[in-house]
Design brief:
Strand order of the largest sheet: 1-2
Low-confidence stretches: 166-171, 187-204
Distance between the termini: 8 Å
Structural class: mainly alpha
Number of domains: 3
Mean pLDDT: 73
Largest sheet: 2 strands, parallel
Strand content: under 5%
Order of helices and strands: HEEHHHHHHHH
Helix content: 40-55%
Oligomer: single chain
Number of strands: 2
């Protein structure tokens, strides 16, 4: 996600709200990819930085619950591949389908609880966030697909420390391409003929 993509989406949503004669408030993570825009029908509110687990509902359990469901799809696919002649294969479309189904499995109760956890307490807080069934993990252990001592919770959290976003490494697509294939004089002349340059795309 880049600030250019997000701004384009936000302005399109604002136009839709204006057409419907509606005004909404939007709570945003405080990152460079979320520009502070003055819009007619959307009021932006930014959460404080570096307080994700305490103030941001997505980091209070919603993302974790989503990943629980997604990892179960992954384990099930891996188990089916054990006896399959084609082996384990996963394409981008299937991964996106899993992500959609995983989000559909995140219950309103879970979302409400996570909002209550960070301070949205108009209603009495529920005691627990609904968790998906993890019995499939035992099947994966029996099939020898799991490292000794690795729990399902550890498996879900494997990528928690991975840096993402525009600031993760500072690299841009054009910088990478130029390092592999320096621009020739012809490339420079072609670029000089164009007065409008496309926005830089950051590697996530």
């Amino acid at each position: 996600m880049t600030s250019e993509i997000f701004e384009k989406w936000l302005r399109k949503l604002n136009n839709s709200m204006r057409f419907d004669d509606r005004k909404i408030a939007m709570i945003l993570d405080n990152v460079s990819g979320h520009p502070n825009l003055n819009l007619s029908h959307i009021k932006l509110f930014f959460l404080p930085p570096n307080t994700t687990s305490m103030t941001q509902p997505m980091d209070a359990g919603i993302i974790k619950n989503l990943k629980h469901h997604y990892r179960r799809f992954l384990i099930r696919k891996r188990l089916l591949a054990v006896d399959s002649e084609t082996g384990f294969k996963l394409d981008l479309l299937q991964a996106l389908d899993w992500l959609k189904m995983s989000w559909d499995n995140v219950t309103p109760t879970t979302i409400k609880h996570c909002y209550q956890h960070v301070g949205f307490k108009d209603l009495p807080a529920t005691e627990e966030t609904s968790a998906p069934d993890t019995s499939i993990w035992s099947s994966a252990e029996e099939a020898g697909l799991v490292s000794d001592g690795l729990s399902f919770e550890d498996f879900v959290a494997l990528d928690d420390g991975v840096a993402i976003g525009p600031g993760a490494n500072g690299l841009k697509i054009d910088d990478i391409l130029n390092s592999l294939h320096p621009p020739s004089d012809d490339d420079v002349n072609i670029e000089n003929d164009d007065n409008e340059y496309p926005p830089n795309i950051h590697v996530l």
